[in-house]
Amino acid sequence: MTSEPARLPVDATTTTAWGSLTELSKNLQPDLRGWFATDPARAGRLSHQAVDLHVDLSKNLVTDEVLASLLALADEVRLAERRDAMFAGEHINVTEDRAVLHTALRRPSDEPLTVDGQDITADVQDELAKVYTFAEKVRSGEWTGVTGEPVRTIVNIGIGGSDLGPVMAYEALEPFVQDGLEVRFVSNIDPTDVAQKTADLDPTTTLFIVASKTFGTLETLTNARLARDWMWRSLVAVGAIEDSEEGRADAVAKHFVAVSTALDKVEAFGIDPENAFGFWDWVGGRYSVDSAIGTSLAVAIGPDAFAELLAGFHAMDEHFRTTPFEQNVPALMGLLNVWYVNFRDAHTHAVLPYAQQLHRFPAYLQQLTMESNGKSVRWDGTPVTSDTGEVFWGEPGTNGQHAFYQLIHQGTRLVPADFIAVANPAYPLTDAVGDGGAVAAGADVHGLFLANFFAQTKALAFGKTAEEVRAEGVAEELVSAKVFSGNRPTTSILAPALTPSVLGQLIALYEHVTFVQGVVWGIDSFDQWGVELGKKLALEIAPAVAGDEDALRTQDPSTAALIAKYRELRA
Ligand code: F6P
Asked: How far apart are CA 171 and CA 173, in angstroms?
């Protein structure tokens, strides 16, 4: 494969399609009520199947003409070409001169892929085999700590992509976790995090996984040192090791493993490279849950379920790679997001899972989407020519309904929202008694839960007119407060159940949605230079915080005053 930088970005705003979309938007009077009334086939026409996901786009603020222009835009910005370049391993991460191959992590073992002269499918399979062997050892009790006890708690230490994916997937797949095993996640450099997560742990049955792509992240390395120190002290306290160099080395060998692309740094930390799992610079941190970064998850749910997760990812990759854009769900969802950001003035996008197990999915998507597409220059270094990126946010339904939905229903801002649900819950329960009214005795509680999903998407789309409010006998002075404008766009995603495969499909879906938007905006969705300045300044400021007066004097007046205040308040 070539390592040539990919061709220059097309300026989407100069395309014919962009002009058409601008005109269409100017003249568009969203009317979901009318559109559905005159076109009963709309729901069917705008619903698509992507592997196990049923995706209904019909409650979006688009006409067939708008959709046609969005698809034309995809052609004009050469979306298919760029997608194929990504799958082929071209260096589309231009600013870091890297291939972007998270899709190779879930490629079937019998499909070789040569990139930069290397068969990376074979590399992926070798590393996966190592992770699976380790996972089986821990699950079976063959892997033991210094006292010969099996592992009961795994603590994953990592941040950003080395935390958000694993913790989100662990929570989502909790019903698949082996009995007797628990995974905890330490990410924040706030010492509270590691202190709380280790407070009640038995060191003899605890295994730390230090997960860091670079193995240079301040938070993770600091937490790893704190954890190592805790482990040494705790094992000495219970008489499990001698307070000696050999004792400490034994503790690290049996209670610490690492995941990284920088195995030399892992060794320098004291972890035997034999106990380290690698991956490659062509996997972005936020795209890495399906690499060895998912080791904690692989241990928890086991190799079979992890393989099923990977298969789900791959199935969605294939949908994205092979389906014509007219029915290609990631392409359509990405283009709809462009429509809202660039033509309908939306600034944010809500993700609302009606599945408690997906409660960390919005947080996971925040890194995936905002670290990828929060950019102001294009991949050739020139300024972007339109707005890019949205603020992704959300909470599980129904909790969000009682918190922020008010703004989505009646606020002045347009908030496109994705509603996600599964048909079969992991914990089906019935309400034996009911409430004597709408909730019948023996009611399926999940049915009640999803009635809320359907009610919210319906209310957002169709609202409630003043006439309807008046017809309920509402006093005239309260009518306007009780009107719902409707025409609040939503996408509904339904899956049969939250299996490992479905989770893989969902993650891959949003990876590709993010990619599609990045292509339209001409940006490199795979670098993250915007996080560097703060990291550097934190290291520069640390001495001032620690009491170095010279360092304090070099700060700007506001920062210097804040540091001084902190030091005054700090006991
Ligand atoms: O600071 C942002 C970031 O660079 C993310 O992109 C990354 O996922 C995270 O830090 C953690 O990085 P690492 O896995 O190298 O510790």
From this structure: 6
- Residue 435 scores a pLDDT above 90: yes
**Do 509 and 317 meet the contact criterion of CB atoms below 8 Å apart?**
no
Residue 402 bears catalytic tag = yes
What's the 282 CA to ligand 1 centre distance in angstroms?
14
Per the CB < 8 A criterion, the answer to whether 414 and 60 are in contact is no
pTM beyond cutoff 0.85: yes
In the chain, the amino acid numbered 377 is V
pLDDT at 2 over 80: no
Say how many C-beta atoms besides its own lie within 10 A of residue 41's C-beta.
9
- Average pLDDT value for the chain: 97
Share of the chain above pLDDT 90, in %: 97
Ligand 1, atom 10: nearest CA belongs to which residue?
160
Nearest CA to ligand 1 atom 9: 160
Strands 391-393 and 348-354, bridge-based pairing = parallel
Tokens found for residue 92: 């589309």
Span 473-507, pLDDT tens digits: 999 999 999 999 999 999 999 999 999 999 999 99
Span from the CA of 358 to the centroid of ligand 1 (angstroms) = 22
Q: Please enumerate in sequence order all residues whose Cβ is within 8 A of that of 313, keeping only pairs 6 or more positions apart, or say none.
A: 103, 105, 106, 290, 504, 505, 507, 508
Backbone angles phi, psi at 413, to 5 degrees: -105, 145
Q: In this structure, are strands 276-278 and 391-393 parallel, antiparallel, or unpaired?
A: unpaired
* Dist. CA 168–CA 503, nearest whole Å: 10
Contact 205, 150 (CB under 8 A): yes
First to last CA, the chain: 59
CA–CA distances in Å: residue 181 to residues 131, 155, 252, 301, 498: 17, 11, 20, 9, 20
Do 535 and 218 touch, CB atoms closer than 8 A?
Answer: yes
Classify residue 137 by burial, with Cβ atoms within 10 Å: 0-12, 13-18, 19+: middle
C-alpha count within 13 angstroms, C-beta hemisphere, residue 376: 2
d(CA 515, CA 306): 24
From the candidates 318, 402, 540, 565, give the one annotated as an active-site residue.
402
